Amino acid sequence: MFAGSVLIGFTLIGFAVWLHFNDQHGWQHESFDGELDRQYLSRRRRSRRWVHLIFGMSGFFSIVAAIAGPGTVWMGAWACVALSLMTIVLLAGLDAIRTLRYQSRKRPEIHRSLLDQED
């Protein structure tokens, strides 16, 4: 149980660091040119920073549970991990809604640029 908790903890912390690094340095094939793109990117980065922090805290609580061993601290730490991961799922849903709204506002701009390229 100790090794599993530590492994999960360090995996979550590593995943949070990896996500944060990629979000700060940009994902492959990602380009943001216009003002609408910059607004979306700044909002996305701000909200995803919270997700990365919550992932890292989940890893920390998993490691705390491993060190504490079975008992009330162990139960509390794993309850925090479960609640934080459910929060991440909720925030991911909100991020998906924000992305859909951005794409619907971006679509006319994409159509105009494609029509201009055809001419």
TrEMBL record:
Transmembrane segments: 6-22, 50-69, 75-97
Keywords: Membrane, Transmembrane, Transmembrane helix
Domain of life: Bacteria
Protein name per the record: Uncharacterized protein
Organism annotation: Novipirellula artificiosorum
Species lineage: Bacteria, Pseudomonadati, Planctomycetota, Planctomycetia, Pirellulales
